[in-house]
Amino acid sequence: MLKILDRYIIRKFLSTFFFMLGVIMLLAMVFDIAERLSEFIKNQAPLQSIILDYYLNFLLYYGNTFSSMIVFISVIWFTAKMAQEAEIIPILNSGRPFTRFLRPYMVAATILMVMSLVLNHFVLPRANRVRLDFEESFYRDRLLVENYHAEFPGNELVHYASYNSKENIINDFVVEKYDNHNRLVHFLKSRTATVAHGSSNWHLVDVFERRINYNDTLAFNDQMLNQKIQLTEEHKKDTVLPYKIEDMAIRDNIAEAMTYSELKQFIKKEKEKGNASVPTFEIELHQRTSYPFATYILTLIGVSVSSRKKRGGIGVNIAIGLLFVFIYIFAMKVTTVAATTVGFPPIAAVWLPNFIFGILAIFMYRIAPK
Description:
Elements: H1 4-42, H2 47-65, H3 67-84, H4 88-93, H5 98-138, E1 144-152, E2 156-164, E3 169-178, E4 184-195, E5 201-215, E6 226-240, H6 245-248, H7 260-273, H8 278-306, H9 314-341, H10 346-367
Antiparallel strand pairs: 1-2, 2-3, 3-4, 4-5, 5-6
Protein backbone atom coordinates (compact mmCIF):
# COMPACT_ATOMS: atom_id res chain seq x y z
CA MET A 1 0.00 0.00 0.00
CA LEU A 2 1.34 3.41 -0.92
CA LYS A 3 2.26 5.71 1.95
CA ILE A 4 2.40 9.50 1.98
CA LEU A 5 6.11 9.39 1.05
CA ASP A 6 5.36 7.08 -1.89
CA ARG A 7 2.61 9.27 -3.25
CA TYR A 8 4.73 12.39 -2.80
CA ILE A 9 7.70 11.04 -4.74
CA ILE A 10 5.57 9.37 -7.44
CA ARG A 11 3.65 12.60 -7.96
CA LYS A 12 6.89 14.60 -8.21
CA PHE A 13 8.40 12.00 -10.56
CA LEU A 14 5.47 11.83 -12.97
CA SER A 15 4.65 15.55 -12.92
CA THR A 16 8.29 16.48 -13.61
CA PHE A 17 8.52 13.87 -16.37
CA PHE A 18 5.38 14.97 -18.21
CA PHE A 19 6.26 18.65 -17.78
CA MET A 20 9.73 18.14 -19.29
CA LEU A 21 8.30 15.88 -21.98
CA GLY A 22 5.76 18.56 -22.92
CA VAL A 23 8.37 21.32 -23.06
CA ILE A 24 10.85 19.30 -25.10
CA MET A 25 8.23 18.04 -27.54
CA LEU A 26 6.80 21.55 -27.93
CA LEU A 27 10.26 22.86 -28.83
CA ALA A 28 10.81 19.93 -31.20
CA MET A 29 7.49 20.63 -32.91
CA VAL A 30 8.30 24.34 -33.29
CA PHE A 31 11.65 23.56 -34.91
CA ASP A 32 10.03 20.97 -37.18
CA ILE A 33 7.33 23.43 -38.27
CA ALA A 34 9.99 26.01 -39.09
CA GLU A 35 11.80 23.43 -41.23
CA ARG A 36 8.79 21.89 -42.96
CA LEU A 37 6.38 24.81 -43.35
CA SER A 38 7.54 25.72 -46.84
CA GLU A 39 7.09 22.09 -47.96
CA PHE A 40 3.60 21.96 -46.46
CA ILE A 41 2.60 25.14 -48.30
CA LYS A 42 4.27 24.06 -51.55
CA ASN A 43 2.53 20.67 -51.56
CA GLN A 44 -0.78 22.10 -50.25
CA ALA A 45 -0.97 19.80 -47.24
CA PRO A 46 -4.40 20.07 -45.53
CA LEU A 47 -4.27 21.67 -42.08
CA GLN A 48 -6.27 18.80 -40.56
CA SER A 49 -3.79 16.25 -41.91
CA ILE A 50 -0.86 18.30 -40.65
CA ILE A 51 -2.27 18.35 -37.12
CA LEU A 52 -3.90 14.93 -36.83
CA ASP A 53 -1.95 12.74 -39.23
CA TYR A 54 1.49 14.23 -38.76
CA TYR A 55 2.07 16.21 -35.57
CA LEU A 56 -0.10 14.11 -33.28
CA ASN A 57 1.82 11.00 -34.33
CA PHE A 58 5.08 13.02 -34.40
CA LEU A 59 4.63 13.77 -30.69
CA LEU A 60 3.81 10.15 -29.89
CA TYR A 61 6.82 8.79 -31.76
CA TYR A 62 9.53 11.19 -30.60
CA GLY A 63 8.10 11.53 -27.11
CA ASN A 64 8.29 7.77 -26.64
CA THR A 65 11.71 7.55 -28.32
CA PHE A 66 13.30 10.00 -25.89
CA SER A 67 11.20 9.05 -22.87
CA SER A 68 14.01 7.11 -21.16
CA MET A 69 16.36 10.09 -21.42
CA ILE A 70 13.66 12.46 -20.19
CA VAL A 71 13.01 10.09 -17.27
CA PHE A 72 16.67 10.32 -16.33
CA ILE A 73 16.79 14.12 -16.47
CA SER A 74 13.50 14.32 -14.55
CA VAL A 75 14.82 12.09 -11.76
CA ILE A 76 18.04 14.10 -11.57
CA TRP A 77 16.12 17.37 -11.46
CA PHE A 78 13.55 16.76 -8.74
CA THR A 79 15.75 14.48 -6.59
CA ALA A 80 18.59 17.04 -6.61
CA LYS A 81 16.07 19.70 -5.65
CA MET A 82 14.86 17.55 -2.76
CA ALA A 83 18.47 17.06 -1.65
CA GLN A 84 19.24 20.79 -1.83
CA GLU A 85 16.14 21.55 0.25
CA ALA A 86 17.20 18.92 2.82
CA GLU A 87 14.11 16.76 2.25
CA ILE A 88 16.09 13.53 1.82
CA ILE A 89 18.20 13.79 5.01
CA PRO A 90 15.26 13.39 7.46
CA ILE A 91 13.94 10.46 5.38
CA LEU A 92 17.23 8.58 5.69
CA ASN A 93 17.80 9.69 9.32
CA SER A 94 14.40 8.30 10.33
CA GLY A 95 15.87 4.81 10.10
CA ARG A 96 14.29 3.88 6.78
CA PRO A 97 16.65 1.98 4.45
CA PHE A 98 17.64 3.48 1.13
CA THR A 99 15.64 0.78 -0.63
CA ARG A 100 12.52 2.16 1.04
CA PHE A 101 13.32 5.62 -0.35
CA LEU A 102 13.93 4.02 -3.77
CA ARG A 103 10.64 2.09 -3.89
CA PRO A 104 8.34 4.90 -5.15
CA TYR A 105 10.88 5.69 -7.86
CA MET A 106 10.66 2.11 -9.12
CA VAL A 107 6.85 2.22 -8.98
CA ALA A 108 6.79 5.36 -11.13
CA ALA A 109 9.43 3.89 -13.45
CA THR A 110 7.27 0.78 -13.86
CA ILE A 111 4.27 2.90 -14.84
CA LEU A 112 6.32 4.69 -17.51
CA MET A 113 7.97 1.46 -18.68
CA VAL A 114 4.61 -0.28 -19.19
CA MET A 115 3.29 2.76 -21.05
CA SER A 116 6.32 2.71 -23.34
CA LEU A 117 6.00 -1.03 -23.99
CA VAL A 118 2.33 -0.67 -24.92
CA LEU A 119 3.12 2.25 -27.22
CA ASN A 120 6.05 0.45 -28.89
CA HIS A 121 4.26 -2.81 -29.60
CA PHE A 122 0.63 -1.82 -30.15
CA VAL A 123 0.10 1.92 -30.70
CA LEU A 124 3.14 3.38 -32.46
CA PRO A 125 3.30 0.99 -35.45
CA ARG A 126 -0.15 2.11 -36.56
CA ALA A 127 0.54 5.76 -35.69
CA ASN A 128 3.84 5.65 -37.58
CA ARG A 129 2.06 4.22 -40.61
CA VAL A 130 -0.13 7.31 -40.77
CA ARG A 131 2.81 9.65 -40.14
CA LEU A 132 5.05 8.04 -42.76
CA ASP A 133 2.25 8.06 -45.33
CA PHE A 134 1.86 11.79 -44.72
CA GLU A 135 5.60 12.34 -45.07
CA GLU A 136 5.66 10.35 -48.30
CA SER A 137 2.88 12.47 -49.73
CA PHE A 138 3.95 15.96 -48.71
CA TYR A 139 7.63 16.33 -47.98
CA ARG A 140 9.62 13.13 -47.98
CA ASP A 141 12.99 13.39 -49.70
CA ARG A 142 13.37 11.24 -52.78
CA LEU A 143 14.44 7.64 -52.31
CA LEU A 144 17.65 6.61 -54.07
CA VAL A 145 18.72 2.95 -54.16
CA GLU A 146 21.95 1.78 -55.77
CA ASN A 147 23.39 -1.64 -56.60
CA TYR A 148 20.34 -3.62 -55.53
CA HIS A 149 20.56 -7.43 -55.40
CA ALA A 150 17.88 -9.83 -54.15
CA GLU A 151 16.59 -13.37 -54.55
CA PHE A 152 12.87 -13.88 -55.00
CA PRO A 153 10.78 -17.07 -54.79
CA GLY A 154 10.98 -19.30 -57.84
CA ASN A 155 14.79 -19.13 -58.10
CA GLU A 156 14.72 -15.61 -59.51
CA LEU A 157 17.56 -13.14 -58.99
CA VAL A 158 16.86 -9.45 -59.48
CA HIS A 159 19.38 -6.66 -59.55
CA TYR A 160 19.64 -3.15 -60.88
CA ALA A 161 22.15 -0.29 -60.87
CA SER A 162 19.98 2.50 -59.44
CA TYR A 163 16.44 3.63 -58.67
CA ASN A 164 15.21 7.18 -58.19
CA SER A 165 11.75 7.54 -56.64
CA LYS A 166 11.27 11.06 -58.02
CA GLU A 167 11.39 9.87 -61.63
CA ASN A 168 10.28 6.33 -60.67
CA ILE A 169 12.87 4.85 -63.05
CA ILE A 170 15.06 1.78 -62.57
CA ASN A 171 18.33 1.73 -64.51
CA ASP A 172 20.05 -1.43 -65.81
CA PHE A 173 17.31 -3.78 -64.65
CA VAL A 174 18.25 -7.49 -64.77
CA VAL A 175 16.24 -10.63 -64.00
CA GLU A 176 17.80 -14.10 -63.92
CA LYS A 177 15.74 -17.26 -63.48
CA TYR A 178 17.26 -20.66 -62.66
CA ASP A 179 15.85 -24.17 -62.68
CA ASN A 180 16.10 -26.78 -59.92
CA HIS A 181 19.56 -27.79 -61.17
CA ASN A 182 20.78 -24.20 -60.71
CA ARG A 183 20.98 -23.68 -64.48
CA LEU A 184 20.11 -20.36 -66.07
CA VAL A 185 16.86 -20.71 -68.05
CA HIS A 186 15.83 -17.07 -68.51
CA PHE A 187 17.87 -13.87 -68.65
CA LEU A 188 16.24 -10.46 -69.12
CA LYS A 189 17.94 -7.09 -69.17
CA SER A 190 16.56 -3.65 -69.90
CA ARG A 191 18.21 -0.26 -69.94
CA THR A 192 15.34 1.27 -67.93
CA ALA A 193 12.24 -0.09 -66.24
CA THR A 194 9.18 1.58 -64.75
CA VAL A 195 6.23 0.29 -62.77
CA ALA A 196 3.39 2.01 -60.93
CA HIS A 197 3.27 1.69 -57.15
CA GLY A 198 1.22 -1.32 -56.11
CA SER A 199 1.30 -2.75 -59.63
CA SER A 200 3.07 -5.75 -61.20
CA ASN A 201 2.76 -4.41 -64.76
CA TRP A 202 6.24 -3.41 -65.86
CA HIS A 203 7.28 -1.24 -68.81
CA LEU A 204 10.77 -2.06 -70.08
CA VAL A 205 12.90 -0.09 -72.56
CA ASP A 206 15.74 -1.47 -74.72
CA VAL A 207 15.21 -5.08 -73.75
CA PHE A 208 17.55 -8.01 -74.31
CA GLU A 209 16.12 -11.44 -73.47
CA ARG A 210 17.57 -14.94 -73.58
CA ARG A 211 15.67 -18.15 -72.95
CA ILE A 212 17.36 -21.54 -72.66
CA ASN A 213 15.47 -24.82 -73.05
CA TYR A 214 17.43 -27.84 -71.86
CA ASN A 215 16.97 -31.38 -73.24
CA ASP A 216 17.60 -33.67 -70.28
CA THR A 217 16.91 -36.99 -71.96
CA LEU A 218 20.52 -37.96 -71.19
CA ALA A 219 21.90 -38.34 -67.69
CA PHE A 220 22.49 -34.96 -66.09
CA ASN A 221 26.16 -34.49 -65.18
CA ASP A 222 26.27 -30.79 -64.24
CA GLN A 223 27.13 -29.89 -67.81
CA MET A 224 24.99 -28.29 -70.47
CA LEU A 225 23.83 -31.21 -72.61
CA ASN A 226 21.45 -30.51 -75.48
CA GLN A 227 19.97 -27.04 -75.31
CA LYS A 228 18.05 -24.55 -77.38
CA ILE A 229 18.74 -20.83 -76.94
CA GLN A 230 16.23 -18.20 -77.99
CA LEU A 231 17.42 -14.57 -78.20
CA THR A 232 15.08 -11.59 -78.36
CA GLU A 233 15.70 -7.85 -78.60
CA GLU A 234 12.92 -5.27 -78.31
CA HIS A 235 12.85 -1.50 -77.99
CA LYS A 236 9.85 -1.59 -75.63
CA LYS A 237 8.19 -4.40 -73.74
CA ASP A 238 5.22 -4.52 -71.39
CA THR A 239 5.19 -7.54 -69.10
CA VAL A 240 3.97 -8.83 -65.75
CA LEU A 241 6.58 -9.70 -63.15
CA PRO A 242 5.85 -11.35 -59.76
CA TYR A 243 7.15 -8.45 -57.66
CA LYS A 244 6.46 -4.79 -57.12
CA ILE A 245 8.65 -1.74 -56.69
CA GLU A 246 7.72 -1.72 -52.99
CA ASP A 247 9.50 -5.08 -52.71
CA MET A 248 12.74 -3.70 -54.12
CA ALA A 249 12.97 -0.07 -52.99
CA ILE A 250 12.12 0.43 -49.34
CA ARG A 251 13.21 2.94 -46.75
CA ASP A 252 14.98 1.75 -43.61
CA ASN A 253 12.30 3.35 -41.41
CA ILE A 254 9.54 1.27 -43.00
CA ALA A 255 9.95 -1.12 -40.05
CA GLU A 256 8.62 1.58 -37.72
CA ALA A 257 5.16 1.17 -39.30
CA MET A 258 4.96 -2.60 -38.72
CA THR A 259 3.49 -4.47 -35.78
CA TYR A 260 5.57 -7.12 -34.03
CA SER A 261 4.24 -10.03 -36.11
CA GLU A 262 4.45 -8.04 -39.36
CA LEU A 263 8.03 -7.06 -38.61
CA LYS A 264 9.04 -10.65 -37.82
CA GLN A 265 7.62 -11.86 -41.15
CA PHE A 266 9.19 -8.93 -42.98
CA ILE A 267 12.64 -9.70 -41.53
CA LYS A 268 12.31 -13.35 -42.53
CA LYS A 269 11.36 -12.36 -46.07
CA GLU A 270 14.20 -9.84 -46.39
CA LYS A 271 16.72 -12.39 -45.10
CA GLU A 272 15.70 -14.76 -47.88
CA LYS A 273 16.24 -11.95 -50.38
CA GLY A 274 19.67 -11.16 -48.93
CA ASN A 275 18.78 -7.58 -48.01
CA ALA A 276 21.79 -5.85 -46.40
CA SER A 277 19.45 -3.72 -44.26
CA VAL A 278 18.17 -6.71 -42.24
CA PRO A 279 20.30 -5.77 -39.15
CA THR A 280 18.61 -2.36 -39.14
CA PHE A 281 15.18 -3.99 -39.08
CA GLU A 282 16.26 -6.41 -36.33
CA ILE A 283 17.54 -3.51 -34.24
CA GLU A 284 14.14 -1.83 -34.55
CA LEU A 285 12.48 -5.07 -33.40
CA HIS A 286 14.64 -5.46 -30.27
CA GLN A 287 14.68 -1.77 -29.37
CA ARG A 288 10.94 -1.86 -28.82
CA THR A 289 11.61 -3.87 -25.65
CA SER A 290 15.11 -2.76 -24.62
CA TYR A 291 14.41 0.98 -24.54
CA PRO A 292 11.51 0.75 -22.06
CA PHE A 293 13.58 -1.43 -19.72
CA ALA A 294 16.31 1.23 -19.74
CA THR A 295 13.89 3.29 -17.64
CA TYR A 296 14.75 1.20 -14.56
CA ILE A 297 18.49 1.55 -15.09
CA LEU A 298 18.44 5.29 -15.70
CA THR A 299 16.13 5.85 -12.75
CA LEU A 300 18.47 3.98 -10.41
CA ILE A 301 21.49 5.92 -11.68
CA GLY A 302 19.60 9.21 -11.40
CA VAL A 303 18.59 8.62 -7.78
CA SER A 304 22.09 7.46 -6.82
CA VAL A 305 23.75 10.51 -8.40
CA SER A 306 21.40 13.23 -7.19
CA SER A 307 20.33 12.10 -3.69
CA ARG A 308 23.38 13.74 -2.09
CA LYS A 309 23.47 17.49 -1.53
CA LYS A 310 26.34 19.03 -3.50
CA ARG A 311 28.12 22.32 -2.96
CA GLY A 312 27.56 23.41 -6.55
CA GLY A 313 23.78 23.01 -6.24
CA ILE A 314 21.37 21.43 -8.73
CA GLY A 315 23.50 22.47 -11.68
CA VAL A 316 26.23 19.98 -10.77
CA ASN A 317 23.74 17.11 -10.65
CA ILE A 318 22.22 18.13 -13.98
CA ALA A 319 25.68 18.32 -15.56
CA ILE A 320 26.48 14.82 -14.30
CA GLY A 321 23.13 13.57 -15.57
CA LEU A 322 23.68 15.04 -19.03
CA LEU A 323 27.12 13.43 -19.14
CA PHE A 324 25.54 10.02 -18.48
CA VAL A 325 22.91 10.65 -21.15
CA PHE A 326 25.54 11.50 -23.76
CA ILE A 327 27.61 8.43 -22.85
CA TYR A 328 24.53 6.20 -23.06
CA ILE A 329 23.52 7.62 -26.46
CA PHE A 330 27.10 7.25 -27.70
CA ALA A 331 27.18 3.61 -26.55
CA MET A 332 23.90 2.91 -28.36
CA LYS A 333 25.23 4.48 -31.57
CA VAL A 334 28.50 2.55 -31.41
CA THR A 335 26.80 -0.82 -30.97
CA THR A 336 24.20 0.01 -33.63
CA VAL A 337 26.89 0.90 -36.15
CA ALA A 338 28.74 -2.30 -35.24
CA ALA A 339 25.58 -4.32 -35.95
CA THR A 340 24.92 -2.70 -39.32
CA THR A 341 28.50 -2.63 -40.62
CA VAL A 342 30.66 -5.36 -39.06
CA GLY A 343 28.13 -8.09 -38.32
CA PHE A 344 27.72 -7.57 -34.55
CA PRO A 345 24.53 -9.42 -33.45
CA PRO A 346 21.63 -6.91 -33.42
CA ILE A 347 20.14 -8.27 -30.19
CA ALA A 348 23.52 -7.84 -28.46
CA ALA A 349 23.91 -4.37 -29.94
CA VAL A 350 20.58 -3.31 -28.44
CA TRP A 351 20.93 -4.91 -25.00
CA LEU A 352 24.67 -4.44 -24.37
CA PRO A 353 24.41 -0.75 -23.34
CA ASN A 354 21.62 -1.68 -20.92
CA PHE A 355 23.80 -4.46 -19.47
CA ILE A 356 26.83 -2.17 -19.05
CA PHE A 357 24.80 0.67 -17.56
CA GLY A 358 22.94 -1.83 -15.38
CA ILE A 359 26.25 -2.81 -13.77
CA LEU A 360 27.11 0.88 -13.41
CA ALA A 361 23.71 1.54 -11.82
CA ILE A 362 24.26 -1.21 -9.21
CA PHE A 363 27.74 0.17 -8.42
CA MET A 364 26.44 3.73 -7.99
CA TYR A 365 23.56 2.51 -5.87
CA ARG A 366 26.01 0.76 -3.52
CA ILE A 367 28.07 3.92 -3.02
CA ALA A 368 25.09 6.28 -2.75
CA PRO A 369 24.60 8.00 0.65
CA LYS A 370 22.47 5.90 2.97
